[in-house]
Amino acid sequence: MSDTDMNIHKRTAAREAADMVKSGMVVGLGTGSTAAYMIERLGERVAEGLEIFGIPTSDDSEDKALRAGIPLTDFSVHRRIDIAIDGADEVQRGPLNLIKGLGGALLREKIVAQAAKRFVVIVDGTKPVDLLGERAPVPVEVVSFGWECTAERLAACGARGVKPRADRAGSLFVTDTGNMILDCHFGPIEDPEALVSKIARIAGVVEHGMFLNMASEVLVATSEGVERWEL
User: Fold this and answer.
1) DSSP letters of 137-174?
2) Domain ranges, ordered by start, for the chain
3) Is 186 within 8 Å of 131 (Cβ atoms)?
4) 177: annotated binding-site residue?
5) Per-residue pLDDT, 74
6) How many CA atoms lie within 13 Å of 100's alpha carbon, on the beta-carbon side?
7) How does strand 26-29 pair with strand 53-56?
8) What is the C-alpha to C-alpha distance for residues 2 and 36, in angstroms, rounded to an integer?
9) CATH number of the domain located at residue range(s) 138-208 in this protein
10) Is residue 49 marked as binding?
11) Directed axis angle between helix 33-47 and helix 3-18, to 10°?
12) Where does the record place the catalytic residues (predicted)?
């Protein structure tokens, strides 16, 4: 699939998801290239009279939302989100488990998804997999203190490669919450629940990028149109 076709498919799924939003809703605004198209479409609808509040999952999404004219709020005012819309790096066929966080916002994305009554995931046709980890590493957000020890313990969980993420300039990537991300290459994960349990017990881990049993539905855009997957 060419980059042009992929972007067309991302935009198609994103705009369809944005059109699910109704006036009066609090909307979780995802992060990444696919979510950017969703924010763009919501901005268009706000200009047409849609009345919503958004809670962004990153500083980047906040900037995009403000430029699009979307009114923002936060959890001090709204504890629950009506619908959260975000992309994913992998979607497991069947249970709709996800790997997210290659954009670096996995902690805030998971907080928003967990607070949402409905979590809609938007992807192109390259993202579905039979098992998580087939193509994407699992991002793990960690505190910087002792990260080398944390990395060793993640390797002991089965990761063949554990690398600190760098930004585009080659410097150490720092999340919006001031943490590091270790990208862990586990390969196909037969038992994601067991792996999650192991990772959660490691001191220094803030959050991981496996989103298990969280997606309400997934919109998969391909050259044939948009497929809607639900549990």
Assistant:
1) -EEEEE-STTHHHHHHHHHHTT-SEEEE-B-TTSSBP-
2) 3-130+212-230, 138-208
3) no
4) no
5) 98
6) 31
7) parallel
8) 19
9) 3.30.70.260
10) no
11) 40
12) 109 (proton acceptor)
* CATH code at 3-130+212-230: 3.40.50.1360
> Do 3-130+212-230 and 138-208 agree at the fold level?
no
Nearest to 103 by CA among 150, 158, 36, 153: 36
How confident is the prediction along the chain (231 residues), in pLDDT tens digits per residue?
A: 677 888 999 999 999 999 999 999 999 999 999 999 999 999 999 999 999 999 999 999 999 999 999 999 999 999 999 999 999 999 999 999 999 999 999 999 999 999 999 999 999 999 999 999 999 999 999 999 999 999 999 999 999 989 999 999 999 999 999 999 999 999 999 999 999 999 999 999 999 999 999 999 999 999 999 999 998
| Type and span of the H or E element at 2 | none
Nearest one of 165, 231, 164, 158 to 197, comparing CA atoms: 158
Residue 2 among known ligand-binding residues: no
CA–CA dist 28, 170 (Å, integer): 31
Stretch (H or E) spanning 208: strand 205-208
Helix (H, G, I), strand (E, B) or coil at 91: strand
Half-sphere CA count of 86, side-chain side, radius 13 A: 39
Q: Is 34 annotated as a binding residue?
A: yes
Q: Would the pTM of this model clear 0.90, i.e. be above it?
A: yes
**57 in a known ligand binding site:** no
